[in-house]
Design a protein that fits this description.
single chain; alpha/beta; Glycerol-3-phosphate (1)-acyltransferase; seven-stranded mixed sheet; 7 strands
């Protein structure tokens, strides 16, 4: 039934999702030109609220739970498992207070209304996976911005999306680079569940009446702990939250 309803409701979702991207593209441009970073970010935040609202056209629900008291005066590194592109808008909207930036593929900086513009001008690290020097340089720049402005970054340590929701092994890579340049960053695991179900049939049809949850877990203080151990701690927390231990 969920798949059958998907054939009916998916076009409505894509129409709304694409419409919001097109509407907010020129608004982003105006915000950046007239009000700089602050105005541009406010536009992006609101846009992501509208993007999340388009999930509801499929009957899907998003629950974001944050019972943690997070500092606003230090950099934060969010470590989340990754199940679909639908993980991203809820994080941007709900963690907007912390100026969350993403590490993205450089290919995404071209040709996508609103998304490409934000990746170019919003402070993200846009990496070329075929050029390791460029990728490291971009991540270092992001780490320096985090340190200077008390921004946060979101990393998906699995490196790729999980198609069945089962957590993949976390990689240290970009986390180590950021912590080397921004050692004061607080690590915050986020457990994402069921967004993979939304795309379990592929891009069309999308699944309907799913309940997507994002849960902010206990912060991890670096305290000169080896990066490998920190990543293992975050992975274990997320596994436990997903019931995969």
């Amino acid at each position: 039934m969920k798949k059958f309803l998907g054939y009916i409701l998916t076009p409505l979702h894509y129409l709304a999702f694409g419409l919001w991207l097109c509407i907010f593209h020129p608004i982003q441009w105006l915000g950046l030109r007239l009000g700089g970073y602050k105005a541009h970010k406010a536009v992006v935040d609101v846009m992501n609220w509208f993007l999340v609202s388009s999930y509801y056209l499929l009957g899907n629900r998003v629950t974001f739970t944050n019972k943690q008291i997070l500092p606003a005066n230090r950099p934060i590194l969010f470590l989340a498992n990754h199940q679909s592109m639908y993980d991203i808008p809820p994080i941007i909207w709900n963690m907007r207070k912390y100026h969350a930036k993403f590490i993205s593929k450089i290919e995404l900086t071209r040709g996508i209304p609103s998304i490409s513009f934000n990746l170019k001008h919003g402070g993200a690290a846009n990496i070329d996976r075929k050029d390791s020097k460029q990728a490291i340089s971009e991540i270092i720049k992001l780490a320096n911005r985090m340190k200077a402005d008390n921004w946060s970054a979101v990393i998906f340590p699995e490196g790729t999306r999980s198609k069945d929701g089962h957590l993949k092994t976390f990689h240290v890579g970009g986390i180590a680079t950021i912590l080397k340049k921004c050692p004061s960053a607080l690590l915050i695991p986020i457990a994402i569940d069921n967004s993979w179900r939304m795309v379990q049939y592929g891009a069309f049809p999308l699944s309907t009446f799913e309940r997507i949850t994002l849960n902010v877990l206990t912060p991890i203080e670096p305290n000169n702990i080896p990066v490998e151990q920190l990543v293992q701690m975050a992975e274990k927390e997320i596994k436990a939250a997903l019931g995969q231990i």
